[in-house]
Amino acid sequence: MSELRVAPDEPTPDLDTEWWWDAIDGHRLMVVRCPRCDRVTAVAAAFCPRCWAEDVERVPASGTATLYTWTTVLQGYGPFAEKAPYVVAMVDLEEGPRLMTEIVDADPATLHAGLRLTVGFRDREKGRAVMVFAPTTDTVR
Ligand SMILES: [Zn+2]
């Protein structure tokens, strides 16, 4: 496990989620699929949240999603102050799970529910990479 760094803008992986953040560092978005009930979750769960099976599988996500809802943060605080304005969103992965992320490379005025999105990754000088989503274009993927 990497050195624990606690900050508002930093993920804090634990023994159950370290592998998921390692995948993000490698620019791969993973999901957890239950082989018993087929439930897919974006959370790096050690067991199925529906049927509690412990033999869940870690599988790569397609990297595509649709926009469910969003808001533009105009005034951030702390480590987010310099980042504003930015768009925080809930997106539905093609595999089904909904997760929170940031929308990049988009004019907020053009966003709409159901907009097709593609995952991307932002490396950071300090700390772990993070996933972001951008509107799908023919050149993204
Ligand atoms: Zn299950």
What does this structure look like?
The relative contact order is 0.18. Helices cover 6% and strands 33% of the residues. The protein contains one helix and eight strands. The model has no long low-confidence stretch (mean pLDDT 90). It starts with 17 loop residues before the first helix and ends in a 6-residue tail after the last strand. A five-stranded antiparallel beta sheet has the order 6-5-4-7-8. A three-stranded antiparallel beta sheet has the order 2-1-3. The chain is globular. The protein is mainly beta. The chain has one domain (18-135). The structure holds zinc ion (ZN). Zinc ion (ZN) is lined by residues 34, 36-37, 39, 48, 50-51, 53. The site of zinc ion has 8 residues, from loops.
Oligomer: single chain
Order of helices and strands: HEEEEEEEE
Shape: globular
Please give the radius of gyration in angstroms: 16 Å
Bound molecules: zinc ion
Model regions low in confidence, pLDDT < 50 over at least 5 residues: none
Total of domains: 1
Number of helices: 1
Helix fraction by DSSP (H/I, runs of at least 4)? under 10%
